[in-house]
Amino acid sequence: MPAPILSIEQLHEFLDREFPQIHVNGRVLAVTEVSDGRLVMRLDPSDRHLRPGNTVSGPSMVMLADVAAYAIILAHIGPVALAVTTNLNINFLRKPTLAPIFCECRLLKLGNRLAVVDALLTQEGAEPVAQATATYSIPPR
């Protein structure tokens, strides 16, 4: 896989500028690592992310997987705001608790028009809570 061309700081600046709505109720997402074909994003869930039974909601985990997939693609192709999700499939594996969730993404394919990302969502000291595969359409450059 190619080396990333955007740093963690550049990714945060881009997301803050182009998608400020992801931080409407406070900053809960942050890229923690980026390297060749790999990125880790952290979600710090709050009460608003919970469902009955004190579990983090599915939509919150989908958001994490989708934003992390977008971030790994941008880290490797540059700030292309119009790259869009064309498919996202998620498998919920275990009940997540109200604790940070980490999404480790790996680029499976990075082509000129499509990118495919595998995303594994985990919590500290626990088995994976979800796994997603996302496909993004990359606009012509």
Please describe the biggest sheet, giving its number of strands, its sense, and whether it closes into a barrel: 6 strands, antiparallel
Shape: globular
| Spans where pLDDT lies below 50 across 5 or more residues | none
> Structural class given helices, strands, pairing?
alpha+beta
Distance between the termini: 20 Å
Instruction: Identify the CATH architecture.
Output: Roll
Helix content: 10-25%
How many separate domains make up the residues?
1
Spell out the CATH superfamily: Hotdog Thioesterase
Mean pLDDT: 93
CATH fold node name: Thiol Ester Dehydrase, Chain A
What count of helical segments does DSSP give? 2
Q: Strand share of the residues? A: 35-45%
InterPro entries: ACOT13 (IPR039298), HotDog_dom_sf (IPR029069), Thioestr_dom (IPR006683)
Protein name: PaaI family thioesterase
Family: Belongs to the thioesterase PaaI family.
Organism: Neorhizobium turbinariae
